[in-house]
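Reopening this ticket.

The earlier resolution said the output was attached, but the attachment link was broken on my side. Pasting everything inline this time so it's all in one place.
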Amino acid sequence: MLYTVDMKNGENTREFIVFGVTANNNSFGLTGMHVMDRDGASWEIWGNHLRKKAIDDVITATCNVAGTPRWSWMGYEMPERLCGDDGVRLPDAPEEVIKHVWRNAGTAVTA
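Inline output:
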């Protein structure tokens, strides 16, 4: 798992790129986004109009010591891990998919 330690505040961080955005909002006005880290782990997160990102935006997520993003700390709701090595979900994306998704990564956007 790729993540870095922010020496300024000692927090672990991981970068996620947005590779999908819902065309409409849910009944609470939240927009769904699919994000993937550089290891291929994918999440579905929901955010209001202030947190909505575009495809190819990069979100730097603060993580706990296990490397799990603290989505709620950044204002995102209903996070769901789509891929992972826990034996329950689909495996992480293969290398060619990761390269395709990250091909147009823009400048980092802090969530």
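Reporter confirms the inline version is readable. The radius of gyration is 13 Å. The first strand starts at residue 4 and ends at 6.
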